[in-house]
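ok so i was messing around last nite and threw this chain in just to see what happens. nothing serious, just curious
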Amino acid sequence: ADALATRLGGWARPFFAFGLFAAGLSSAVTAPLAAALSVRGIRGDGDDARWGDRSARFRAVWAAVLLFGLLGGLTGVEPIPAIILAQALNGVLLPLVAVVLWIAVSDRTLVGVAYEAGRGLRTVLGIAVMLTCVLGAAGVLRAGARVLGLPAPGEATLLAVGAVVAVAVVVTALGAMRRTRPSARRGSGP
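result:
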């Protein structure tokens, strides 16, 4: 904040503090809600009243995540390791979710013929999957280097490893899509 005030003037400190407060407040609201919705999606049925928005289970998950964050902040736990772990997990999870979505919208038995992605959209989604794989691999490599105390990998290394991961994931996903589209293989469908 001092460097910011030196460059921009004294007004920068209160704006920076307000920005940190707003970021913390929005995270304190959305992170517990996202966790409760995720647990409900995994553990409960959408129509199950035990996991409704006002149920004790839903609110318990929300409160547990909020209290965990509050205790971490009050006890002075260093957040950097948690941020590095989150970066590495996102580097793995984002490509996985992208691949699952790509396969799902390409499977007419799952989404129906009317909603199946056409060839052009599947190509665009494939490019998006490749980009998420490159970014995910780069995030995992950076996080791993930081945890191990190694220098950050260079851009060429990140790009090369990301490209190899992306090609491997895309080839695997295309194989899965071919297996889920038997009518396209036989030529009996559009």
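not much to say yet. Confidence is low (pLDDT under 50) at residues 184-190.
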